[in-house]
Amino acid sequence: MHLIIDGYGGDPGRLWDSGLVERFLDQHPSSIGMTKIAPPEVHTYRGAQPGDWGVSGFVLIAESHISIHTFPAKAYLNVDIFSCKSFDTEASIAGITEDFALSRVDTLVLERGIDHLSAEQARAEVSQRRSGLTA
Amino acid sequence: MHLIIDGYGGDPGRLWDSGLVERFLDQHPSSIGMTKIAPPEVHTYRGAQPGDWGVSGFVLIAESHISIHTFPAKAYLNVDIFSCKSFDTEASIAGITEDFALSRVDTLVLERGIDHLSAEQARAEVSQRRSGLTA
């Protein structure tokens, strides 16, 4: 199960907060029943294009991972939560929306892996939601 | 641009080869014009379910990442290559197919981010390919 999140209208201060990103990667796995197999890795990126600057982070969980990339100048972030077992996607979406004060979240859930052989068969469930600022 | 790969029928020896996984994560970014912002991180996982054992790794590149999880007992692996700029997805697919001697590869390309506002609008291009063993 792979939850893909694109979040818009986030708070730039929170999106720049590498400590917040690290806490999210450190704490979110256990909150959805997953087990980290290594500590999170978080980097602040300031490359050639200021619009691309932001915070990137990653945590490995048992045969799966969570990644996050923030783009404060665009009030945008993306998150991937990929697990070999099912989890409460709504709880993840709500938590991320609140943590980063997102005004809009687009999500996609993919079923992947040996039990879901083809991309065509994969029951991709696209949902789109708008929510008011939650913080 | 997010390339999602599920690969089947891979060589178990290669799927267990953490050195091969690390070399892939170390070298693939530059081969498709991406820049690493940290060294790859690779872990071998042996948890409660032997069927889930395998090698997991990721590398952060500028505001994006590559992840890989192998499941040698299932001859399966998955790879995500996520970049804020476009890249040659065919070259990536061919390289991974060869590196791990995959017999079947299902792929999905998603356009994500601030320039592709809704999941509905995202031109998800699903392709499915079968290839003979290449190694």
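qc> The first helix of chain B runs from residue 12 to 15.
qc> done
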